[in-house]
Amino acid sequence: PPAGLLQVVKQCVRVPVFVMIRPRGGDFLYSDREVEVMKADIRLAKLHGADGLVFGALTEDGRIDTELCTALLAVCRPLPVTFHRAFDMVHDPLVALETLISLGFERVLTSGCDSSALEGLSLIKRLAEQVMSSARCVTWSLFPPGGGITERNLQRILEGSTASEFHCSARSARDSGMKFRNPNVAMGASFSAPEYSIKVADVAKVRTLNAIAKNIL
């Protein structure tokens, strides 16, 4: 997010705010220039009150980019760091998990290397068991499963994964307030979001999901 958004969010909420460092969409194989941007974004996020950082980086053969992650972690410290869903694109998730533990990541955001956390539930549970069985993981947080989580499947996912945290968008579409609309022009690609529809956090969904989680956890 831009620094302005982070500043305003920090003024409005009491919960810890973790900032994702991602210079572009697409894969997680970054160029030297993109790495420069990521380091600059981390410094700005820390300057404007981020409580933690979130990023992920891979090598061309689908492994954790240990050299880059080590460099970025050094810039992030002393803040806690989460490895995001780049994890779902790794060649071997069990080996990748061991790498992330050794590097010092506190959390991993994953859908179990599948299209959603529900489909990847068995792997999420296996990864969580691997974390709990490791003597090196005293401070390691359980996986916050992410991907396709809704009020209809959250209970099953939390119970099946033993996770103590979860991630979801919990949003809905809000119609634009524009009265005049030019149907001949679009500001984005044809497959992007509708021009006059805005995605916003849905308070009702957040409250429902929180209630479900509190009842289980």
From TrEMBL:
Location(s), subcellular: Cytoplasm; Nucleus
Keywords: Copper, Cytoplasm, Metal-binding, Nucleus
InterPro entries from the UniProt entry: CutC-like, CutC-like_dom_sf
Highest taxon in the source lineage: Eukaryota
Main localization, broad class: cytoplasm
GO molecular function, one term: copper ion binding
Quaternary organization: Homotetramer.
Protein name: Copper homeostasis protein cutC homolog
